């Protein structure tokens, strides 16, 4: 029996921009919940501003003055009468202090409890809790101060290079340095410490054994306030550049049914142990050689790649976050969740596909893919600017099919035939090369796939620009001039 919910969300302020803000707006619109956007000065004409019911200017371009300014965001919510805040992903989404401020102001926080955010935001604490829940963890040491400490650990535990130095407060691939030899240790330690301090204001580090040929698998979990914790199966997020994902799929081609059952129930056991609420993801590294998986971290937010899980399960994860925040008990059970599709997602970032250097400017042409089995999450429109101040992601392309080959075929059609973006460089040529690569199609890849195959992938790029269109038109004109009217005219 469903218990009466505690409170009703009447208006949602979305403390974000671009793709995540628009994604949250779609579900709110389905539920007839008004939305408020916040925007910085360069984002005044952004897509998320146009999509919202109303918008509030919160500061200048630097994130510290706008999208990371907690006081301004909460003031904006009060100003417009919003009684709930959804943080999307990135920016303040996993900030325990912000979550507590929202709750202290009497607003509804659409996310996990602040205590969970705080515990899971520290990789060292998260690993300790995982071990307490009997979840396998990667061999390593925490609170690393100097090189000698690392050397002593490696000797005692018989750990060989490579190893990975990580920021304890990290995420998104920042503050992570792979070390191949003893000679690299001093510079790598300094680099990780510097990156951690710059990105998170905290230079606390941990060191772990590096899993060669590792595969990145994460389990989507949803939980309400009544102790109901369910998994929505797993995603494979192995294809990465610079420790950041660019292709995701669900389910994972790495797992058989027994491993799938084990990893999914391990994730729900951990989330139940830590008292999790709303949507979250447990990330694992899977050693394909030994068929063992190890805990990496908990992402205490809506994930960029949640859409592929929605496509294979039919669940609205943002909707479930709203239900949990309102205090509703979930009406479904684990046995009622059964994937019956395969889904693939690629991230369209404004970057040079050869070097991954940012590419900023105006989108002079945008042809958005359509057709069967295609879902688009966009944060821009034709004529919009890609500003240099924020993350380079501006569109997600998702495709689905009855099986993996079907989902890949739709993605091939979508990237090669239906997508046109001009004005900025994007990762699209690289993404197309990857999904056409034989090793990817066979499901044989690791987190090092791009670095191992980069030259080959670049050689597969098919250059195309507006001159191709002009040439095509010129050929038609020449044919008609030479041969006269055609039957098809």
From TrEMBL:
ATP-grasp domain residues: 127-326
GO molecular function: ATP binding; ligase activity; metal ion binding
InterPro entries reported for this sequence: ATP-grasp, BC-like_N, Biotin_carboxylase_complex, Biotin_carboxylation_dom, Biotin_COase_C, CPAse_ATP-bd, PreATP-grasp_dom_sf, Rudment_hybrid_motif
Assigned keywords, A-Z: ATP-binding, Biotin, Ligase, Nucleotide-binding
All copies of domain Biotin carboxylation, residue ranges: 8-455
Cross-referenced PANTHER family: CARBOXYLASE:PYRUVATE/ACETYL-COA/PROPIONYL-COA CARBOXYLASE, METHYLCROTONOYL-COA CARBOXYLASE SUBUNIT ALPHA, MITOCHONDRIAL-RELATED
Protein name per UniProt: Biotin carboxylase of acetyl-CoA carboxylase
Source organism of the structure: Dissulfuribacter thermophilus
């Amino acid at each position: 029996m469903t218990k009466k919910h505690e409170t009703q969300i009447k208006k949602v302020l979305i403390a974000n921009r671009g793709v995540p803000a628009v994604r949250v707006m779609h579900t709110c619109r389905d539920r007839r919940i008004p939305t408020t956007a916040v925007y910085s000065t360069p984002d005044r004409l952004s897509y998320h501003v146009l999509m919202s019911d109303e918008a509030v200017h919160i500061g200048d371009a630097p994130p510290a003055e706008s999208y990371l300014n907690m006081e301004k965001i909460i003031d904006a919510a009060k100003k417009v009468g919003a009684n709930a805040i959804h943080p999307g992903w990135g920016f303040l989404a996993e900030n325990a202090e912000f979550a507590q401020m929202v709750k202290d102001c009497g607003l509804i926080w659409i996310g996990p409890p602040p205590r969970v955010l705080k515990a899971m935001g520290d990789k060292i604490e998260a690993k300790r809790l995982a071990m307490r829940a009997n979840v396998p963890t990667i061999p390593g040491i925490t609170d690393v101060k100097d090189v000698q400490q690392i050397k002593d650990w490696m000797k005692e535990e018989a750990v060989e290079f490579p190893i990975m130095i990580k920021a304890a407060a990290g995420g998104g691939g920042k503050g992570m340095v792979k070390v191949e030899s003893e000679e690299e240790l001093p510079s790598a330690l300094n680099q990780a410490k510097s990156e951690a301090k710059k990105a998170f204001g905290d230079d606390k580090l941990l060191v772990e054994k590096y899993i060669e040929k590792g595969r990145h698998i994460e389990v989507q979990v949803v939980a309400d306030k009544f102790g109901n914790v369910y998994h929505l199966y797993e995603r494979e997020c192995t294809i990465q550049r610079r420790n950041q994902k660019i292709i995701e799929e669900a389910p994972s081609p790495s797992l058989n049914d027994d491993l799938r059952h084990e990893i999914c129930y391990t994730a729900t056991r951990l989330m139940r142990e830590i008292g999790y609420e709303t949507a979250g993801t447990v990330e694992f590294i899977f050693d394909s050689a030994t068929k063992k998986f190890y805990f990496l971290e908990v992402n205490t937010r809506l994930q960029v790649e949640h859409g592929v899980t929605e496509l294979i399960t039919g669940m609205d994860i943002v909707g479930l976050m709203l239900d949990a925040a309102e205090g509703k008990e979930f009406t479904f059970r684990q046995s009622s969740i059964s994937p019956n599709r395969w889904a693939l997602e690629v991230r369209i970032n404004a970057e040079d596909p050869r070097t991954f250097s940012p590419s900023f400017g105006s989108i002079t042409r945008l042809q958005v893919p359509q057709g069967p089995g295609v879902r688009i999450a966009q944060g821009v429109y034709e004529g919009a600017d890609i500003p240099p101040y924020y993350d380079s992601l501006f569109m997600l392309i998702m495709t689905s099919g009855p099986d993996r080959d079907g989902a890949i075929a739709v993605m091939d059609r979508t990237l090669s035939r239906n997508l046109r973006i001009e004005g900025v460089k994007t990762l699209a040529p690289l993404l197309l090369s990857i999904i056409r690569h034989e090793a990817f199609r066979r499901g044989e890849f690791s987190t090092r796939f791009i670095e191992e195959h980069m030259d080959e992938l670049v050689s597969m790029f098919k250059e195309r620009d507006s001159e191709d269109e002009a040439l095509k038109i010129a050929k038609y004109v020449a044919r008609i001039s030479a041969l006269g009217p055609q039957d098809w005219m």
